[in-house]
Automatic annotation (TrEMBL):
Keyword Methyltransferase: no
Species of provenance: Microtetraspora glauca
Keyword match DNA damage: yes
Gene3D superfamilies hit by this protein: Hypothetical protein, domain 2
Coiled coil feature spans: none
Record key words, sorted: DNA damage, DNA repair
Protein known as: DNA-3-methyladenine glycosylase 2 family protein
InterPro entries attached to this UniProt entry: Alkylbase_DNA_Glycosylase/TA, DNA_glycosylase
Length: 326
């Protein structure tokens, strides 16, 4: 990692993944809406993201060519962002474990389903479950997305970041922002939560989680694979307002947990059920369908959402609410 120039105070790193890597798919879970101030993809194909690292705010730019990833970073958190770049892009994602899981599923009587999932994986060989290693940064948008449509949650996310976040270090695209610190989230007054469209329940959940941010951050990287992710799940769900869905959303992004399906998602069980059985199912039935793939259930569900198999849209859509008018 070397400086690219004193004026920009940038750092650089080149990294060659061991196998195929699809940057779009692998990085997409870390974006929260089209106007996410912490995320941008520019016309030159570069991915930009901001983070409040253990060393301070930082901006990361990622490009890839000829099988090599090129990272540039700015700000106090630049070195940390480059050090953790491979993990963010799935360097620790054990694809061989996924192959073993498919083989076991086929042998256990789920041969047809395993073959279908294997075909999906072959279509997306560069999909990786990466980890950001920043738990609180994954938790805040997940809480804002609880029981509301994405448009509503992303509107609140944008407003709160633009009001309380910090400008992105370096030559980041205009409007990029670093998420506020946990201490700042604890100080946001009730009226600004209301103006952002986040009601008191979600606000209290985030404020309380901010008070335990240090303990939450200590859960990454997972010390012992699945056991470490299970401990992270326990700690997350011990906090008021954080249930199985929110914990899974956080662990997928911050811990790179391939076995954290989003139970409770408004659409996921219907998608999985329809793709595998031709009919929509509930969460309990979805977990039964995914059980042969235990250890890789999130990855399998993710691949299924990419399959294009969707049930007919016949039911009412979840409405967009605006708590600012209440």
């Amino acid at each position: 990692m070397t400086p690219t120039g004193a004026a920009e105070r940038a750092r650089e790193r080149r990294w060659r993944p061991a196998g195929a890597l699809d940057l779009v798919l692998t990085l997409s879970p870390h974006q929260h809406g089209g106007g996410d101030p912490t995320w941008r993809r520019t016309p030159d194909g570069a991915f930009w993201r901001t983070s409040r690292t253990p060393d301070g705010p930082g901006t990361l730019r990622i490009t890839a060519a000829a099988g090599e990833v090129f990272g540039q970073a700015w700000g106090p958190g630049a070195e940390w962002l480059l050090e953790t770049l491979p993990a963010l892009l799935g360097a620790d994602d054990d694809i061989s474990a996924f192959a073993d899981t498919l083989a076991r599923a086929a042998a256990s009587g789920a041969a047809r389903t395993a073959a279908f999932v294997g075909e999906l994986a072959a279509r997306h060989p560069g999909l990786r479950v990466g980890r950001s290693s920043r738990v609180f940064e994954a938790l805040v948008p997940a809480v804002l997305e609880q029981k509301v449509v994405g448009m509503e949650a992303w509107r609140a996310w944008r407003r709160l970041l633009r009001t309380y976040g910090d400008a992105a270090p370096g030559p980041a695209p205009e409007g990029m922002i670093v998420i506020p610190s946990p201490e700042t989230w604890r100080r946001i007054p009730s009226w600004d939560w209301h103006r952002a469209g986040a009601e008191a329940v979600r606000a209290r959940t985030i404020i309380n989680a901010a008070a335990h941010a240090v303990k939450l951050e200590a859960t990454v990287p997972p010390p012992s694979g699945a056991a470490g992710c299970a401990e992270a799940d326990r700690l997350l769900r011990a906090l008021p307002g954080i249930g199985v869905w929110t914990s899974a959303e956080v662990r997928q992004r911050a811990h790179g947990d391939p076995d954290a399906p989003s139970v409770g998602d408004f659409h996921l069980s219907g998608l999985v059920g329809y793709a595998l059985t031709g009919r929509k199912v509930d969460d309990a039935a979805m977990l039964e369908l995914l059980e042969p793939f235990r250890g890789q259930r999130h990855r399998v569900a993710w691949l299924i959402t990419l399959s294009g198999r969707r049930p007919p849209a016949r039911g009412p859509r979840m409405p967009v609410r605006d708590y600012r008018s209440f």
